[in-house]
Every structure is written in C-alpha cells, then in structure tokens.
Amino acid sequence: MNPNQDVIDPLENRAEGQESGAGNPGENKDGEPKRAARPTRHAMIMRGIVTPIFGLLAVAAVALGILNATMWKPSSIINASATISGTQYVVTDPGVLPLLDRNATLNVKPSSSSMQVCVALGTSKDVAGWVASESSYQRITGLASWTSLATQQGKATGAASEASDDNAVAFKDSDMWSQVKCGKGEVTLTSTKTADSTVAIVDLGKDASSAEISMRWVRSQVPDFAMPFYLSGGLLAVVAVLCASVFAMPPHKRRKRMVEGKAVIHTDLSFAERVEQGLVGTKLPESVPARKRRRHAAHRRGAKNEPELESEQIETPVIVDPAARNMVADQQAQQSEQSEQSAQPEHDVFEAAESGAETGTQLGGADGAHSAGHSYGHSGRAGSFDDQATSVITPDELQAYFSRLAREVQDGQSTGPDDADMVDNVGTGSSDTHVDQQEEGK
Amino acid sequence: MSKRMHGLMRHGWVKLGATAAAALALVLPLAACEGQLPTAEAPAASQPSPDLTEAQEKKIRTKILETLDEADAAKSADGYKAVMAGPQLEIRASQVTIAQKSGSMNKYATIPKDVSQVVIPTDDGWPRSVFTITTTTEDQQSQRLLVLNQNSARENYKLVAMARLFDGVSMPKFEIPTHGSQMGTAKDTGLVATPTDALTQYADVLQNGSSSQYASTFTDDMLRQRIASLTSTVQEGIARNNGTQQQTFTAVPDQMWVMRTADGGDLVVGRIDSTWTRQAGDGRESQPASDDERILYNSDHYTSIMKVTYVNVVALYVPQSGDGAQITAVGADRQPVKVEAL
Fold it and tell me: Which key words tag this protein in UniProt (chain A) (predicted)?
C-alpha cells in the first residue's frame, strides 16, 4: 500500500503542478502560495492514510511484543516424551542430552510397574560398544516437536561378539557407566553438567515391553521474541512520524531545499579551495571546478534580483583574504614595492580587508604564492624589518589610504562579480611571474 | 477531484486491510511458540578422548583391590575370578594356596592402593588396557605396575598382570590421563623389535642367559641376574650327585598388553611360562627348591625328577629403533604354580 501511495503521489502532484503552472503562468515554480492556502493531496494521503497505517502497525508490533514477553513467553521447562516398545535398549544420540541445557532429567516409566528398568549415563563410544552385540535397539535422535522425542531404529554394528556368559556383567554392574539407576516401575535419572559425548542408555529388560521415556530440561536461555517486535514497533513509529512530516511535503519542495543546502556547501568548498590555492600556490586543475561552480552560482544569481548579488559581491573578498595572508611575506612584498615605488606602502593589507575587489585579490594571490614559495628563505630578514614596517604608518599615509579607498570602492561597485572572478584568476595564474619580478627587483 | 480522492482512499483502505491481514498472518504464527527446534549435533571429535576418567579408574581399581583383599582374607581363590584374569589370576591363586598352609600371603603379593601414575587408553574398541603404577608398599617394596584389562564392552575391567618394578629402573613417560595414551599392538613397527618379538626374544634370553643370540638386544636386569644365580646355585647341588636341570621359557604373546609411551616406544607387559625340570642322579630324590614349591607340592612322596611350572610376568620397554637402542626389562613377577614329581 505504501509503495503504491508513493508511486501515485508524485504523479498526482506533478500533474497538479503542471495544471497550476498552466493556470497561472506568472506564478512561482515552487507553488508556495498554494501550499500555504491548504495542504496538497499528497500531504493529505500521507497524513490521513499512510501515517495511521504505520501508527497502527507500530501499536500492533508493540502489543505483540508485550504478549510475547508475558502470555506467549516461551516456557523455560521443556518436557518431551516418546513411547518405545519392542526393544531392550534405548540409546540417546550424542548431543541429545545437552540439547537444551547441561542439566537434563531422564524419566522411564514402564507399562507394568513390576518391570525392572535401568538408566545409565556413559560416553557414546562405551554405549555404542554395549549395544554393538544387540540385533537392534532404539535411538532417541532429538526432538520431533517441543513435546515429543524423535526416535529411530538403531542398526547393530555386529562388530562385537556376545561375551561369554561367565564374564559378562549385568547392565547395572558395568564399569563404563558414570551414573546408573535401576528400579522397578518408574526410574528417574538426572544428568548434571552433561558433557557433549555423554549419552544415556536405557535397559528395559529382556521382556522388551513398552515404556514411556521422557526428557526434561530447564532452559537457562529462553529465546526472546519480544525484542524484535519492540524494535520494529519503534521503527514503524519513526516511519509514521516521518510520513506525517517530511514525506508529506511536496517532493519538489524537498528537492529545492536540498539544492539550497548544496549551495551553502559550495561557498564553503570554494573557501577551502581558495585557502588551499593561497597555500599551495597556483594549482590550475583545482581551481577549475571552483570557478565553474562559482560561475554557475553567479549565473543563477544573475537571474535573481539585485540585493542578493550585492551581498555576494561583498562576501567574496572577506572570505578569501584574511586566511591567505602571510604577514611576513606581505612585509617583504611591501618592502620590495616600497623600494620600487615609494608612493604605494603596505596599506594594501587593510585595503584588501575592507573591500578592494580588484587590487586586493590580486595582491592576495601574489602574496599567497610568495609566502608558499619563499617565506622560509627570507624569514630571518623579514623579522628585522617587521617592527619598522608595522609601526611606521604616519597620519599622512593613513589619510592617503582612506582617500584612495573611497575612490576604489566607487570603482569596485561599477565592476561586476564576473569581472572580479576573472581578475582573481588572472592574479592567481600570473602570481609566479609577479613574484619573480619582485625577486629580480630585489 | 474529491471523488477521485475518495475512490483512491477507499482503494487505500481495502489495500490497508489486506496488508494488515497479511501482516498478522505473517506475525501470528511467530507468536506463542517455543522457538526453533534445536537439533542434536554429535560433538566434533577433534581429539580422541580417554576411555576412562581418573576417577573412574580409581573406582574400578579400588573395587578390584577390595575384592582381592576379601578373597585374601578368606584365603579362597573363588573370589578372584570376578576381578582377575590372565597370568595374575594363576599367580594369585597359587599364592593364596600357599597362604592357606603358611598362614599369610606372600609379601610380594601386596598391592598398594595409592597410585603414582595412571595410563589411560584412548582406543575406541576392545580390549582396552589401563596401565597403573602404584606407590611403593608400606615395607618399602618397589612399585607395582598393574594392567587392568577390559576384554569386551559387556565385561568389566580385570587385573590381568602385576609386575614389580625393578629397583632404580627409569620408566618411560606416558601421556597424561586427561589426554590419554594410545594402546600399542603386538605388531608395532619402528621399534627395536615388535612387541611379540621382544617377548619371545626375552624368553630366549631368560633361558640361555648371556649365550642367547638376543642377549645384546636387552640391557641387563634383575630378573636375568636372579634366575642366573638361582640356576647356578641349584646347579652346584645337582652337580654333586650327577643330576641335571633344565629350564625352558616360553613366551605367551596371546597374553600381552601393550601401551604406547610418549616418546613413541612401547611398554609391553606379557606372560612367559617356564618349566624347571630337575633330575637327581645316583638314585636320589629330587626335592623342591623353595618353600613355595614344597607347599605347592603338598606331598612327601618324591621321585628322582621334579618338574616345576612357573608363571612369569615381564614388563619390557621397547624403544624406537636407533643406534644402540636396547630393550629394557623394567619389572617382573614370578611364581611357581605347579610342582610335579615325574
């Protein structure tokens, strides 16, 4: 039923969506206004039919679990019996005595109370040796059901010849039995800590009349049937809740959410990639998918309204620059720049942090590459410059910086985000040559 | 649209009912049962298990020795048959016959109740033999090696042989009782000699002494020395009156019990019958050579020839064949069982 519903619902929904799309071409693809008005048929079916079904099944499973834990609990005492006639010896197969528990009680009840019967325990090979000279005997092979023992005709091996009467001992006098009990009428023998190879042998006497043999175990471990029901009940309840909530949503709505989630991940990824680029240097294969995604995002964003685009524009440099910044490398770069053109001091640091889509990114890329390639080689020299470089910012320089900042902010707003990306890539791609030039300049 | 939905829902309810019924039909048989029927599985025989536990061996041995004690006290051989067989039955019957006259059992007949080692076989078939080494006796006689043998499944263990270990002899090692040892056979190979051959050759050594062709196969031992010295002592007396004496030793491989030792050798306990015929010369009478013989003869009528039948039990350690490996007799018992005047 549920699969059917699932199959039907999306179809219904899609048809409905098409209808609505045809009816109101101007309306949003998501159909959000409609859903807000009243629940879709899909949601109604999921909440009105599927959820109650699962709820009922959950209740039923829990109820069955409770029944299995109480009324229907498997009994720990197992009593199985079989009536055997026409044979003198009855032998249990190896493994039958410890079938349900290491302690087993064997009870033999002959048809007439005057009959002498014996029950003994011995190893399987001893018992097999004892009955080897018999023409036939009965085997108890296990449980036919929970109340009856399975029996089978034992075949005589005929390996041992009958012992001479002088030397032969009576059944109860044999040295081989670890336990033996004889009596007229009913005989009960309890085997404790039964070894795997221990078997029981019953001597019903030469007359070979019938007797009822029963075995009784007290199970120390009773199978637990309640727990699976509880577990499935819990699962069904969870499914019912999901049917009432998540699965009741229109599928495309759920899909949209997932897409949005991906978009968030995209920005994270591009951030990580950019950091990596900054550290490792120019790694074109890595940067290609990042650019692709960004372009796609930009394209999608382009179709939308303005404010989003603006927020993206501001975001981009904020994400990139602080992490990729290597202060030591910056100082070196600025030193070299200072030596080349004294009008451009280390203000770029702040500039990049504030906005500066074009220049900031360019320098950021260059600095990243620079730091990766050369920071170790020049660290000693950079340390000596460090104090001077950071402390010597005169009020005049600060003034000049702010004025330039204001100008560039205006310029930056006029350029699109695609341009910023392009510049970014170019800056990253050419950073090596840029650095080389700086080195030569030194 | 609402009609469609109604139809769909009605359809759904029918399906729901069918599903619920199917689910119940699946679930209900599961309820109220005892679980899956277990099947008996024969234990995997990874290692052959010993035929007896040490406790069982002790129970069997104690029962035998107590029966022996009762029969000894009653000075009657009737009780022996239930718990003894083989050479030991004949030896013990002879000893109790002597005890009837002498008043007490031979001190060599004592069997201590405590054990120092038990060797239990793992063999599935019959006969099965348990080798038991007792402690020394209260009067510091040497340890006894007992062989308890179960001839068939319908019989009980019986004491078939008892050998008094020689002083200072080093016994071979056996597997511990919880592992069990493998019984050897009369035809075990890879040894200095097969058990049957070892017994036969030892009989020849006892008969011929150092002139036996097998003398070098066996290390010197107490039994050989004592028989040789006894023979030479008797020879002195017989030689004075121009008499002769002759001893013949015959191995009885049918009454032989073999157990494998831990080092791959065999410990063989077997019976060797011997007759000692003494003929007095110069018309003299041939007299018994010992008190035991005198009591067994139980007559004052002597002739010139006296034939004494002995039952000997010997325990031989037959090592694996190798450079200079020799068979060692580790214990023996010897008892005259019949004295005749021919």
Answer: Membrane, Transmembrane, Transmembrane helix
Indicate whether B7 belongs to any domain: no
Looking at residue B262, what is its pLDDT?
A: 92
Is B154 in Cβ contact with A169 (below 8 Å)? yes
For A51, which residue in chain B has the nearest alpha carbon?
B16
Least confident range from A145-159, A220-234, A303-317, B167-181: namely A303-317
Span B35-92, pLDDT tens digits: 778 887 776 766 788 888 888 899 999 999 999 999 888 888 888 888 999 999 999 9
Is A143 an 8 Å CB contact of chain B?
yes
Choice between B15 and B35, residue whose per-residue pLDDT is larger: B15
B37 touches chain A (CB under 8 A): yes
**CB atoms B155 and A168 under 8 Å:** yes
Q: Which residues of chain B neighbour A222 with C-beta distances below 8 Å?
A: 35
Q: Order the strands of the B305-318 sheet from edge to edge.
A: B115-119, B128-134, B144-150, B158-165, B328-341, B305-318, B266-279, B244-260
Collect all residues of chain A within an 8 Å Cβ-Cβ radius of residue B31.
64, 67-68, 72, 225
* Closest-CA distance of chain B to residue A74, Å: 5
Q: What pLDDT sits at residue B33?
A: 63
Q: Do A1 and B5 touch (CB under 8 A)?
A: no
Kindly give the interhelix angle for A357-391 and A306-324, rounded to the nearest 10 degrees.
Answer: 40
- B-chain residues near A225 (CB < 8 A): 30-31, 33, 35
Specify if B176 maps to a domain. Answer: yes
Mutate to test the interface with B, among A88, A165, A167, A178 (most CBs of B within 10 A): A167
Retrieve residue A75's tokens: 């009994």
Q: What mean pLDDT comes out for the span A371-377? A: 42
Domain-located, residue B26? no
Burial of B256-277, coded b for 16+ CB within 10 Å and e otherwise, reads: bbbbbbeeebbbbbbbbbbebb
Instruction: Flag if B37 and A143 touch (Cβ within 8 Å).
Output: yes
Per-residue pLDDT averaged across A59-65, rounded? 91
Exposed / middle / buried, residue A162 (Cβ in 10 Å: 0-12, 13-18, 19+): exposed
Domain count, chain B: 1
Bridge partners, residue A154, by sequence: A137
pLDDT at A129 > cutoff 70: yes
What per-residue confidence (pLDDT) applies to B327?
92
Distance, in Å, from the CA atom of B311 to the CA atom of B338, rounded to the nearest integer, reads 9
Domain extent listing, chain A: 2-71+226-249, 77-218, 261-441
Q: Which residues pair with A90 in a beta bridge?
A: A138, A202
| Residue B307, CB-side half-sphere exposure with 13 Å CA sphere | 6
For the ranges A81-85, A327-331, A368-372, B267-271, the one whose mean pLDDT is highest:
B267-271
ipTM computed for the complex: 0.80
CB-CB under 8 Å, A8 with B154: no
Pairing of strands B158-165, B244-260: unpaired
In a domain, residue B10? The reply is: no
Is A77 in the B-facing interface, judged by CB distances under 8 Å? no
Nearest to A167 among B8, B38, B155 (CB): B155
The CATH number of A77-218 is which of 2.60.120, 3.40.50, 3.30.420, 2.40.128?
A: 2.60.120
CB-based contact, A149 to chain B, within 8 Å: no
